[in-house]
Structure formats: structure tokens, C-alpha cells
């Protein structure tokens, strides 16, 4: 539960490649006469990731693709505790910046120059953390299908078991969150509940759903270890392509596949509730960061 009076905000370290180097974006706010990272308060019931993308667009005119979570910042403002969640974002598009009463200047600088210019030490700390990370080359969202009732109450083949009413609501709540990553491919395990989980996203971003049985749970007679290894290998292939994608799979596949990709933890460490998932950042085929994606939090 959030602390009483806690002010929530979100923003991003937005970066773009320039030759062989990277530039990040800072904003100047005339009200405070400061240079800072683009950020702003969450709207009512807004997800922090959605707020981060929205605030970056509003303050800079840049559409950023969220890639990985950066350290949150906590401080006091006007007698209230404030927490700002940050994500590293790659700039996908830029509209012409129009100075306004909130932000009257935007500058693109190297991370080290930006860390020297920002007014607040906590912004400099976030920038230094960003500068020490490998550059993400691809982002995948890996989600577990939404709720589909209980196996014992479904009389047909388990692969045909559909989402229940709660699951359908979960799928619709997931869609706008997953769309923030600007996916260009949607991939689903073959079972009906997985395909239905990404149906609302497919309608939102106007993309077809590719069915890939390598993300199915092990069938009778299959070696579970081999199935998990195949799913992890497929995720590496998708990441190596450099094309942002959303993948929907099942509960006996996702946790052990993530443990294999990360090289740390067990399947229990990577437990993924139904209707939730992960934002995975890769450098080539190598997983460099994983951030939980849960609608409403």
C-alpha cells in the first residue's frame, strides 16, 4: 500500500544513437529554472510506465520505447514524500519542440555531460547508472495468459479452454501496457487462452498473431527440460532479430525459461501470475534486464 500523501511520478532517460555514441535528453523548466530528466506526476489510476512514456512525449515531443527500469528516486517536495520511477527509453520519433510554460528548453547531450548539467544530484545518479549499462538492442514483453477458469471445470480439450470473464478483463488491461513497447510482432503459444490474451493487443496495434508451439507447456511424453530450452532459445532468436515483440506463453514455461536466460535464480524466482509478465531487454541474444509488468501497479 502506498504511503499516505506519497506523490508518485515517472519519467525517462531518453536516448538516441549519434554515430558511435549516445545522447540523452534533458528539459529546462522555467518555473524552477532547473535542468532535469523529463518526468511528471501520475494521473489517477495510471500505470507508472504509461505515465513515464506520456510525460516524455508531453515534455519533449519524443516518443520513447521503454526498455529497462532504472533506479527510482525518492525525496521530499512541499512537505510530502515523492517517488519517481524511471525507465531507459530509446527515442523512436521526434516532433518539433514547442517551448511552453512548463518546459521551455530541450537539450541532447552525452550522458556524462548531462550528469554535469542537471540541477539535482539524484538525476545525476540515474544518468550515471544508465551510462554504465550495455545498450539494449531489442525489447520483448513476455506474458502469461490471463485467467481461464480451472482445468477440472472444462469438459473439452485443455488446449481449447477459453479465458473466463476475469481473464478477458485482464487481457484488455494488458493491451495498452504492452502497446507502450511499440511491438512489431505478436507471438503466442498455440493454446486458445494464450491467443485470446493477446487478441485485444492485436486489435489495438493492428498486428496478426503468430502461433508458435515452442511456447506451449510440455505435452505428455515430452521432456520438460527440452521444452524449456527450446522456448528460451526461441526468445533469444526473437531478441537477436532486433524487432520488438510480445510473446504469450504458459506457467510451466515462463519461469524456467527466464531462469535459463538470466542465468540466475530458479523457476520460483521468476514466478509469473496469470495476466502479468515481464519487460525483457536484450543486447543481441543476451538478456540484460527484466522488469515485471503487472497492470494496475
Automatic annotation (TrEMBL):
The keyword Hydrolase applies. This is NUDIX hydrolase. GO terms for molecular function: hydrolase activity. Residues 5-131 form the Nudix hydrolase domain. Keywords: Hydrolase. It comes from Phytohabitans aurantiacus. SMART domains: PGAM. The keyword Hydrolase applies. It comes from the Bacteria. Pfam families: His_Phos_1 (PF00300), NUDIX (PF00293).
